[in-house]
Amino acid sequence: MAARRKPRKPPATAAGVRRVVSRQRAVQRQVARADAKHARKEPKHPVQAGARPYPEPPMPQQHERKPGAERDLDPQPMFEAPFYAGSAKLAGKVALITGGDSGIGRAVAVLFAREGADIAIQYLCEHADAEVTRRAVESEGRRAILVPGDVSDREVCRHAVARTVDELGRLDVLVNNAAFQVHVPRFEDLTEEHFDLTVKTNLYGLFRMTQVALPHLTEGAAIVNNGSVTGLHGSGHLPDYAMTKGGIHAFTKSLAAQFVRDGGRVLQRRVLDIEVGADGPRTLVTDAGTMPVGTLVVCAGAHSNEFSAKLGDPVPLEAERGYHVTYSDPRMELPLPVFFPEYKFFVTPMEMGLRIAGQSEFAGVDAEPDYARADILAKHMQRIFPGISTADTTKWMGRRPSMPDSMPVIGRATKFGNVYYAFGHGHVGLCGGAPTGRIIADLVAGRSPSIDVAPFSAARFS
Ligand SMILES: Cc1cc2nc3c(=O)[nH]c(=O)nc-3n(C[C@H](O)[C@H](O)[C@H](O)COP(=O)(O)OP(=O)(O)OC[C@H]3O[C@@H](n4cnc5c(N)ncnc54)[C@H](O)[C@@H]3O)c2cc1C
């Protein structure tokens, strides 16, 4: 039998390896010294970015018996919003808020009162909490009544609405907020009784309250239903609650559909031209005929300047084009949106998958998309997450309506009293859309908007 020979190491290589190891260790020691020098001290407290101090963890553990009393919570929830100034958006109105004694319901009651509404506070039996809400509403200078009872009982709903109308004179806004929620470790632990209580409170309560309130709601009235993200995504520990919230979303959309059936009109037209007379715009020329103009709001995104110029307000609006890539089945998860400053793009987890967005391109509003720009985003993504699946990917280009001073154009046209502008929100049109809508609604209705719109006037470019 042949003796096994020891593998021979080339002596030069062995010495070379020792040298490399020794250099690596020297570098490691040097970095360890640098690490120690620049060691980041963990902040003792979370960043306080609000206008007043907010409670900091750790919060004391607590386990309240149902139905739970807000006054027993430590720390006490904040609901006063001392820096929010009302602007009479609900002047002379009356709101009925279910679950109005505490939590979201209490905060809504107080801020509705600050907007000028009298409040009926409906709640189960937490009388002490409801008294706090009543005093808070009254300190806003408004009236409040307390209407206790189980919202899943039709008679209780009928009584609450009747007392609201009798004592406060009318009903303009119903806020369906009351809900029951208790988690379960697993679906198998959800009992029939538990399920029944959740559905009766969250769905029957909302259905019955809406039904008895409806005959009292007239033009301009509103029903506000409290949904939840669990109604969109489900929840492992709240299967019954998530199911009722999904039901509330669908119920709300169904009520909106009835608006159209009852004579509300939603028209989809492409506006080709505006015929303008000496006293203002007279007719819209559309792809489906002409339409007379009463009041005109120009909010045509990156095309808005085509119309504002016709109406006597030429403005330097530019389409700042941006790109998305959406990975429908990325085979990876991100819990939060992430910004990568070195590549200047965002990755956002969405219902339809992972979306990356970025790029600013100035190529005119009508030019064809240049998807090489989307490919740059995708290349960065691949570099950061090499394991991402790109099997199911779509690309998109959008036009941000951008102004040179990064301020939107909001307000009345300079020449005509029946024309309003609402465009130019650039990178933040999704966030800015709702407040702008509110401002325009106020202006069209002849009310003072909550802010001074003068700095946003189209006249700043004349
Ligand atoms: C890649 C990208 C990422 C973005 N990310 C964000 C973000 O994270 N957050 C955020 O707040 N904003 C974001 N934005 C910006 C936001 O999308 C815009 O600011 C917003 O869409 C502008 O709203 P708008 O209603 O003014 O215009 P648009 O959304 O463009 O709406 C204008 C509407 O007018 C219609 N219209 C135009 N011409 C006519 C015509 N002749 N007749 C009839 N209708 C017409 C159009 O069809 C369109 O429906 C992003 C934009 C892009 C491109």
Question: Could you give the topology of this structure?
Answer:
Blueprint lengths: L10 H27 L56 E5 L4 H12 L3 E6 L3 H12 L5 E5 L5 H15 L4 E4 L15 H22 L8 E4 L4 H4 L5 H23 L9 E7 L2 E7 L2 E4 L3 E3 L5 H7 L7 E10 L10 E3 L4 E6 L2 E9 L10 H13 L8 E10 L6 E4 L6 E5 L5 H16 L18
Parallel strand pairs: 1-2, 1-4, 2-3, 4-5, 9-16
Antiparallel strand pairs: 6-7, 7-8, 10-13, 10-14, 11-12, 12-13, 15-16
Helix pairs in contact: 2-3, 4-5, 5-7
The structure holds flavin-adenine dinucleotide.
- Mean pLDDT score: 92
The portion of residues forming beta strands comes to 15-25%
**Residues in helix, %:** 25-40%
- Determine the structural class based on helices, strands and strand pairing: alpha/beta
What characterizes the major β-sheet?
Answer: 5 strands, parallel
What is the β-strand count? 16
Instruction: Give the cofactors and ligands.
Output: flavin-adenine dinucleotide
CATH architectural name of the largest domain = 3-Layer(aba) Sandwich
Fold-level CATH name of the largest domain? Rossmann fold
